[in-house]
């Protein structure tokens, strides 16, 4: 019998974080030098229980969790045309393989479907990897937040 020798498709999907995958999201890790750039996934999941407008997504590669992102619409004042990507991480073992831009493209589709016209994000100034990923995707810097983070926007 012939075996299928074709490579796997490396399909990236965004799935709701739920009771079936939240532990996988918590177990993900960053490189040591990246850990100060981002709140932990456990904290993000806990925060989402008190912020009903937060949307958490498990980033899956061939149905295996390799990252997590969190986004929401602007809520002060409420604006369903402006969305914020406020957490985005890919496990250290899966970085630098082109998944970041694929994930951002899926997020943009989802935000557009929700009526979003603008997507904003931020990163610590020292986080050069995040800066490269966002700017290569088309985000542009528009300023600095009160906490010193670099603010970026993408018109959808």
UniProtKB/TrEMBL annotation:
Coiled-coil region(s): none
Domain of life: Bacteria
Positions of the N-acetyltransferase domain: 12-156
InterPro entries: Acyl_CoA_acyltransferase, GNAT_dom
Protein name according to UniProt: GNAT family N-acetyltransferase
Upper lineage: Bacteria, Pseudomonadati, Pseudomonadota, Gammaproteobacteria, Vibrionales
